[in-house]
Amino acid sequence: TILILGACGQIGTELSQSLREIHGRDKVIASDIRYGEDTFVKEGPFEIIDATDRDTIVKVIQKHNVSQVYLMAAMLSATAEKHPQKAWDLNMNSLLIILELAKEKLIDTIYWPSSIAVFGPSSPKVNTPQDTIMNPTTVYGMSKLAGEHWCNYYHNKFGVDVRSLRYPGIISWKTKPGGGTTDYAVDIYFKAVEEGKYECFLEENTMLPMMYMKDAIDATINIMEAKSEDIKVRTSYNLAAISFTPEQITAEIKKHIENFEVSYKPDFRQDIANSWPQIIDDSKAREDWNWSHEFDLESMTKEMLKNIQSSMISM
Ligand code: VAH
């Protein structure tokens, strides 16, 4: 059985649904610190779990005979800057609990997401390599970089099968993300449909690595289905799809909503974005477990606008 911690989050929500489609509803235990509003929670087994509460995690693992854990609970970059200690506690202690459970053989396999936030201002901005200088300047990035080394340590020292991907900004319409710097690229689609105008919290020429949710889910399932010996990187794999600026995504949206207006009012999240790469080199993932993305800016924009418009009509 699979247990997903943080199942009500932006990625956790769609990951739970996809894993239930593949493995069957009752083979995937969704969990989060509180019930999400999504109906999917009622579509299958759900447990209330605080990802830093080891005793409850162990109880649920034994109750449902869990063998795989997807640890999707975390505090993202913007929120983490407002609550540094809480972010460190949640992002690190949840991982250390799960790694230890795998070492103790209570579970077999772990999926743990890292992020392009592990790179910092001194990392190369274009074609950022798998291995390079990494001096993150955000609490979130520091916690993800430290987490990568813990994963590598538990794999090399204790043979723990933990797998990880450095997600870029993820764009989706089913669940609103919480507290990310890349989330302007989600908000902008909703505001274009709902109001025809958007005030962007990043400068128009801020290029960031991004990916449509379906590609992120496919990559996650791919790496978890790969043979362990094919996973050569046990810190975390670079993963990339598209890179664009607010100006470019606005131009793409205007092809569908021509009088859409965007204004720019950068806030504290501009500093976070400026510390991150612009274009990621993910050739290692493509070599080791034949990763490839499907959506580009044009096809993602069509998908996002179509689904937001139809979900509004059904409201
Ligand atoms: C964030 N969406 O903005 C997350 C992600 C690379 C960005 O880590 O914090």
TrEMBL record:
Entry GO MF terms: L-threonine 3-dehydrogenase activity
Alphabetized Gene3D superfamilies for the sequence: NAD(P)-binding Rossmann-like Domain
InterPro entries linked to this entry: Epimerase_deHydtase, NAD(P)-bd_dom_sf, NAD(P)_epim/dehydratase
Pfam families: Epimerase
Organism in which the protein naturally occurs: Tenacibaculum skagerrakense
Domain NAD-dependent epimerase/dehydratase, chain residue ranges per copy: 2-238
Name of this protein: Nucleoside-diphosphate-sugar epimerase
Protein's GO biological process: L-threonine catabolic process
Family listed: Belongs to the NAD(P)-dependent epimerase/dehydratase family.
